[in-house]
Amino acid sequence: MAADNQNFFERVYTVATQIPYGKVTSYGAIAKYLGAARSARMVGWAMNASHLKDEIPAHRVVNRKGLLTGKHHFDGTNLMQQLLENEGVVVIDNQIQELDKHFWDPFTELE
Description:
Blueprint: H1 3-16, E1 25-26, H2 27-33, H3 40-49, E2 61-62, H4 79-86, E3 91-92, E4 95-96, H5 99-102, H6 106-110
Parallel strand pairs: 1-2
Antiparallel strand pairs: 3-4
């Protein structure tokens, strides 16, 4: 992995570790917060690469519509959903219900 990608991934992880219990954010929101608004896909790659880091709550990062698009990167078919439901987040058909209630925006929360 190129050094600049590794640095970007570390910046993504710094943001992701601050997502509160019971909240979710999107790949795009993290990218925008990091000043790389068009890099939502790279945030997704960082989340995929984080499976070796237990301290990264990758299950709390979803797409902008609240879909569990990264769920196939978790061991077990429904592990991402189970982790979210354990935190009080309702998921139906791989989509977070009441996304606005659970959404955490790094711009408003970290600034």
